[in-house]
């Protein structure tokens, strides 16, 4: 689990990132979770945007994605979800 200080640190790091994935009408599926897992291994920190036409609640989407990708949910702000997962081979972010 991340501490409040670590979450603040990750939020500041994620601030200038652009969303890589978009969750739309289809909602969350296995294929998307697999791709997000791979992207998190490469990047550790990422933003995902929830589109207007998504039928699921954004908090539900965030919970499904973080659980499926075994990642920490850093923040849900507006229609943007921020996820973090420590990379095994490609560690870039040093948490405070």
Automatic annotation (TrEMBL):
Gene3D superfamilies: YhbY-like
Annotated InterPro entries: RNA-binding_CRM (IPR001890), RNA-binding_domain (IPR051925), RNA-binding_YhbY (IPR017924), YhbY-like_sf (IPR035920)
One of the Pfam families matching this protein, by short name: CRS1_YhbY
Keywords of this entry: RNA-binding
UniProt domain CRM: residue ranges: 1-96
Entry superkingdom: Bacteria
SMART domains: CRS1_YhbY
PROSITE patterns: CRM
Entry GO MF terms: RNA binding
PANTHER family reported in the protein's UniProt record: RNA-BINDING PROTEIN YHBY
NCBIfam families: RNA_bind_YhbY (TIGR00253)
Protein name: Ribosome assembly RNA-binding protein YhbY
Origin species: Bacillus mesophilum
Gene of this entry: yhbY
């Amino acid at each position: 689990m991340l501490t409040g200080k670590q979450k603040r640190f990750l939020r500041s790091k994620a601030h200038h990132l652009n969303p890589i994935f978009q969750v739309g009408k289809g909602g969350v599926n296995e294929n998307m979770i697999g791709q997000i897992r791979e992207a998190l291994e490469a990047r550790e920190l990422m933003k995902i945007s929830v589109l207007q036409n998504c039928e699921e609640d954004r908090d539900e989407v965030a919970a499904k994605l973080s659980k499926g990708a075994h990642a920490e949910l850093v923040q849900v702000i507006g229609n943007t979800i921020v996820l973090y997962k420590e990379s095994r081979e490609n560690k870039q972010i040093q948490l405070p």
